[in-house]
Design goal:
single chain, 490 residues, Rossmann fold, 2 domains, 9-stranded mixed sheet, 17 strands, binds adenosine-5'-diphosphate
Length: 490
Amino acid sequence: MYIVQVASELAPLAKVGGLADVVCGLSWELSIRGNEVEVILPKYDCMRYDQIWGLTPSFNDLWVPWFGGGVHCTVWFGFVHGRKCFFIDPHSGDNFFNRNTFYGCNDDVLRYAFFSKAALEFLLQSGKRPDIIHCHDWQTGLLPVMLFEQYTHTDMQFQRACYTIHNFKHQGIFGHEVLHATGLGRPEHFFDHNRLKDNHNHLALNCMKGGIVYSNFVTTVSPHHAWEARFTDQGYGLNHTLHQHHQKFGGILNGIDYATWNPEIDPLLAARYSAETIQDKYINKEALRDRLWLNRGVKPIIAYIGRLDEQKGLDLVYHSIHHALSRDAQFVLLGTASNHSIHCKFQDLKHQLNDNPDCHIELSFNEELSHLIYAGADMVIVPSAFEPCGLTQIIALKYGTVPIVRSVGGLSSTVFDYNYSEKPMLSRNGYTFDNFDTYAVESTLNRTIGLYYDFPHEFRQLMINGMNCDYSWNHPGSHYVNIFNLIRHK
Ligand code: ADP
């Protein structure tokens, strides 16, 4: 099968969160199963160009219809750790992808509408005819809309679209301008409840809704979250649309790429280890302490790695730092905030705790450091308000780092409580809590830290249980292949 992934992120060169890891891991899994896989991305100025091999122009004269005129683009080709990638580089005064940032611009919807249109034009003009075009999140939600409203009238009537939603909170809300820009036009056609009209703001259109309505299949990143999105407020207003399209909607739990996230082969660690040589994990703990100027000693290290966004339960993260320090634990935080006031709040905390030898707060995006933290920490905390899948806990498990999570979305499908789960003891791999409050966090931290200090053998077994879990792309890969086979033109 010939599959093209169209996405706004790809690890490790353009990564904001889990979407980048998924596109990276899934495209590799699909290709080792014998499929032809290509990835189309914007050519951002702020990508990690050191992660691209052999970057060369591959299609020089791509003209993308835009606002009744056309934008001239170059499409570049390069390998990203073996993945075949094409990069759209528009030559226009808008400088859509030369903003020194991935997201956060006022014209984001226009930027990604352009990207989606350019990806389709590239396929059309270069004669590429994939069986499946796999789109991700609101950024490429308009691609299936354009595919079926505009491109089936060209030579692309056999291409099928799969649409994966990684986060329902961000949907890409827009108005007439984007219809005009993309040539979709016909506001009377698209301002329809069964097409793109936003379910709440009837004067607006919704990219994600478009992706759901027009794709041949829609997935989200865990079965539990598929249920939450349909039946709770976590669908962020799209519940009814998901009901309408429930026959083509399902959840597939994300995997992680064990070629990247594996303590046995990870080149970014101070020492490599497996479940059999787990004592070598502690070499990484000391290396992490040295790097972050933390005290040495018997204390456990608790880590938080992730975006500093309200979704992640930031008040609880904040609270857990103080609580951990009061319970003889150390704390390491690695995160970035796109919101200025959140950034300032954590910046202030960093200043307050600057001289504390048991705490380090790192407000940056640092892929290399994240590997050392996963390996060096004893526990990670993920107290999210909602979490479609969550990768931090899955990565932590592989590194023998015990996850402490709130039982929502994909967290509840991957972490099973040491004391309360109904699973057999050897399948329990962490600590969970339900309530979104500080009492729940405190008591769960106390249980975890208590096991660490009082029952080190049991704690070690819990670490090993986590390392023995299989959250590779193997299972999810076959689910995606089944879906692609179901929808492809026969
Ligand atoms: P989300 O997609 O909501 O951001 P996930 O848990 O699915 O959350 O994925 C987060 C990914 O991003 C993980 O690979 C995590 O290690 C990585 N990550 C998040 N913040 C940072 C950071 N500041 N530095 C390095 N890696 C980060």
